[in-house]
Write a structure and sequence with these properties.
The protein is built from 21 helices and 22 strands. The strands form four sheets. It has a nine-stranded mixed β-sheet, covered by helices on one side. A five-stranded mixed β-sheet has the order 10-11-14-12-13, with helices on both faces. The longest helix has 24 residues, at 344-367. The relative contact order is 0.06. Mean pLDDT is 87; it is low at 100-104 and 115-127.
């Protein structure tokens, strides 16, 4: 073997941190190192298959693609090799010495928080699966050569996982990668054949590449290779022949998620667009599901040939929690992301997969309330993006949404709009809702007083996305949807005629005139209301103007918001209003009116432009009593 001088490199700082955590933390499931290395080898073979579409010479006359595992008990080593795409010297530095994927800092924070019980599902999510080999190894060496190279020169990468690694140029006749693990003394259980076979059966049975393990024939005194996985793409099998456990195991292999999926849908579709789809609904949300840089999407195959991960072109953003794959018979094998975006076949497949995904959720909601609630608690916020993104499937999405309400008496969102309508009063014309910063704030809003009195249910919306979402949900099943914090004529129909016709005293009439003079342009208008029972006054947004919650969203996003002028409603039956009516001193009356407006604005917005002035005014009014 022709070996050149070694070169020493330092790991990227993030890699050092990950290695330290993996080597020195208590790891709950050490065996997953083999799953990760086999998965990487499978990816390398998939890449070779894909690149060889345009360059068949990459096979180097070796079309028998496989992963092989051999054990040497005397040397205490495990060797995992593949004849896939391989790596160049630079590839080796970039892939084994750095972590290029975005979000590494967030990943490290997640590891650090759980360093005494690192969650298995985090390994692999940021391309760090290879480093899991150091959990069981005191040293790791990687011999690799890029397929299609003009010479037999390869690369030897070696490290003990302590901050540095060596790279040497070596001779390697066969393309692909060979990883040698020098096991720690306490990890010698992994030198047993049955242990390795058990791990592969558990995690990697559905890898589409043959996985062979080296065995010894005592009779003939020879070594031989035995295949230990099915090596058949699960999705091309008849679904009646696939067990529930096989689906679950395949999902775990596909996603690196250690939890079972809640639900899945496996479909073979023939016709103009022939394809197979296998879609899963996870049990738990990915920890970085809100990271906008995070890639999502389906794994794409064309005629059983792996093409790419995270093909976002087949599902909209609001369904980014769906995991799985699509295997098309009609897309070109040399398809790229650019071609996918402009391809009519892609658009037709996307429509079909959206409907299939929503159908999965409909089936789950109809047949298993408990599991659907589990789904909603994890992914409800993501699905709430749907009404704005997908008008064509709006009605279906609305049926899948869940809310809480004043009659639910819990912050958990369990109420569908269909259930709300079935519970409506016979004469109730609209679906009512209120948005606020929190469930507690929504539940205690003075806007609800009339509805509590009349026993009319109101949806309580407190997620930040809710106000934006409700702009796209204006009616459902013939019922208009109305915010109770906005001016609306239909609310007057909820007030009994005798309440409306209550005689307005001279004092109240004079009160309104003086209040209008005091407030001037601060409000849009001032009027009496019979909506309130325990509160002296409230403010309402005009029906055609921006709501308070929408203004907050714009402000939080750094966008300019027009000045909001509210309708100021006074409860003439409240003792405080009756008391203020009797005040003749103009200056004192003005203080009280401004106090009432600030009080109503504070209840509506949760903040004031000048809270110090409000506090000073309260103190002054208290001292005058």
């Amino acid at each position: 073997m022709n070996i050149q001088k070694k070169e020493v490199y330092s790991f990227q700082s993030e890699v050092k941190q990950i290695l330290h955590l993996m080597i020195h933390s208590l790891y709950s499931n050490k065996e997953i190192f083999l799953r990760e290395l086999i998965s990487n080898a499978s990816d390398a073979i998939d890449k070779l298959r894909f690149q060889s579409i345009s360059n068949t010479e990459l096979y180097e006359n070796d079309n028998n693609l496989k992963i092989q595992i051999s054990i040497n008990k005397s040397q205490k080593t495990i060797i995992i090799s593949d004849n896939g795409i391989g790596m160049t010297r630079q590839d080796t530095i970039e892939n084994l010495g750095t972590i290029a994927k975005s979000g590494t800092k967030s990943f490290l924070k997640s590891l650090e928080k759980k360093q005494n019980n690192i969650k298995n599902e985090l390994i692999g999510e940021f391309g760090v699966g290879f480093y899991s080999s150091f959990i069981v190894s005191r040293k790791v060496s990687v011999r690799t050569r890029l397929a299609g190279s003009k010479s037999d020169q390869g690369v030897l990468w070696e490290s003990s996982g302590e901050g540095e690694y060596n790279i040497t140029t070596v001779m390697k006749k066969q393309k692909g990668t060979e990883i040698t693990l020098f096991l720690k003394k306490e990890e010698e259980e992994f030198l047993e054949l049955w242990r390795i076979q058990n791990i592969i059966s558990k995690y990697s049975d559905h890898i589409t590449v043959p996985i062979q393990i080296q065995k010894y024939d005592e009779k003939n005194k020879t070594y031989f290779w035995e295949q230990i996985n099915k090596a058949t793409a699960l999705w091309i099998q008849n679904k009646s022949s696939i067990s529930e456990k096989e689906y679950q195991d395949f999902y775990k292999h596909l996603t690196n998620d250690q939890n079972n999926p809640i639900f899945w849908s496996h479909n073979h579709v023939e016709g103009i667009n022939e394809y197979i789809s296998l879609l899963f609904i996870p049990e738990k949300a990915a920890w970085d599901i809100w990271n906008r840089e995070n890639k999502y999407g389906l794994k794409l195959y064309v005629k059983r040939v792996y093409i790419m991960d995270n093909a976002q072109e087949f599902l909209p953003n609001y369904l980014r929690f769906i995991r799985g794959l699509i295997d098309s018979n009609h897309l070109p094998l040399n398809v790229s992301r650019e071609i996918l975006q402009d391809n009519s076949i892609t658009q037709n497949l996307k429509k079909a997969l959206i409907k299939r995904s929503l159908k999965m959720l409909e089936t789950l909601a109809k047949n298993d309330d408990k599991k659907y609630q589990q789904f909603w608690n994890q992914f409800g916020l993501v699905l709430k993006e749907g009404p704005a993104e997908d008008s064509k499937n709006l009605n279906t999405i609305i049926k899948l949404l869940r809310f809480t309400s004043i009659q639910n008496n819990t912050s958990e969102q369990t109420l569908s709009l269909e259930k709300y309508i079935s519970n409506m009063h016979p004469n109730q014309e609209k679906i009512y809702y209120i948005t606020a910063d929190s469930y507690t704030s929504a539940k205690n809003s003075p806007h609800l007083e009339l509805f509590n009195k009349k026993n009319i249910d109101v949806l309580l919306l407190s997620d930040r996305i809710d106000e934006w979402m409700m702009n796209y949900i204006t009616e459902f099943e013939g019922k208009k949807i109305q915010s109770i914090s906005k001016d609306d004529e239909s609310l007057n129909k909820l007030i009994k005629e005798k309440e409306k016709k209550q005689e307005t005293s001279v004092e109240i009439t004079e009160f309104l005139k003086k209040a209008k003079t005091t407030l001037g342009e601060k409000v849009k208008s001032i009027r009496l209301t019979h909506r309130l029972t325990d509160t002296p006054c409230i403010v309402l947004s005009d029906s055609n103007e921006m709501s308070t919650q929408m203004a907050k969203l714009f402000t939080a996003a750094g966008q300019a918001v027009p000045e909001l002028k509210y309708i100021f409603e006074i409860n003439p039956n409240h003792d405080l209003i009756k008391k203020i009516c009797k005040i003749n001193e103009t200056k004192k009356f003005d203080e009280w009116i401004n106090f009432l407006l600030d009080q109503a604005l504070f209840a509506e917005k949760g903040s004031l432009e000048n809270p110090h002035q409000f506090i000073s005014r309260i103190n002054k009014l208290i001292l005058e009593q």
